Amino acid sequence: MRKFLLAASLAGLLLTVVPVRSHASAQQSSQGQQTQTDTKTIMGKITSVGNGGHSFALEVNSGGDKQTMQFMLDKNAKVQGKVGVGSDVTVEYQPVEGGQNLALSIAPQG
């Protein structure tokens, strides 16, 4: 009888823990959606491509000074036309934690 009560108590505990975890995931997802809508656009010249084509550096003019920004690409990034080192491009991106930038779309200028 004790084994049955212990098993029933553990099953009840598991049932109360699982919904709490899925609720936390739902909150994280909604926060992720808020971040996804915060997109920016910048123009510049690609100066290097790395990580097997999954990252690139972009030289941009910021108030007359040239700066280099780093971008990463994932499987959802949209690359329009042919772009590579030396290409002038427009990049739509989303800043993510850790100072990284996730490129959402890359298009050649002009």
Q: How would you sum up this structure, described in words?
A:
By secondary structure, the protein is α+β, with helices and mostly antiparallel strands. It has 2 domains: 1-37; 40-108, Copper binding periplasmic protein CusF (OB fold (Dihydrolipoamide Acetyltransferase, E2P)), CATH 2.40.50. The protein contains 1 helix and 6 strands. The protein is globular, with a radius of gyration of 23 Å. Residues 2-35 have low confidence and may be disordered.
Which strand order spans the largest sheet, edge to edge or round the barrel?
3-2-1-5-6-4
- So what's the overall shape? globular
Major pleated sheet:
6 strands, mixed
Order of helices and strands: HEEEEEE
- Number of separate helices: 1
In which range does the helix fraction lie? Answer: 25-40%
End-to-end C-alpha gap: 78 Å
Structurally, the number of domains stands at: 2
CATH T-level topology of the largest domain? OB fold (Dihydrolipoamide Acetyltransferase, E2P)
Class of the largest domain in CATH? Answer: Mainly Beta
Stretches where pLDDT is under 50 for at least 5 consecutive residues are 2-35
Structure classification: alpha+beta
- CATH architecture descriptor of the largest domain: Beta Barrel
Strand proportion, as a percent range, falls in 35-45%
- Give me the count of strands: 6
CATH homologous superfamily title of the largest domain = Copper binding periplasmic protein CusF
Overall pLDDT level: 76
The radius of gyration computed from the alpha-carbon positions, rounded to a whole number of angstroms, is: 23 Å
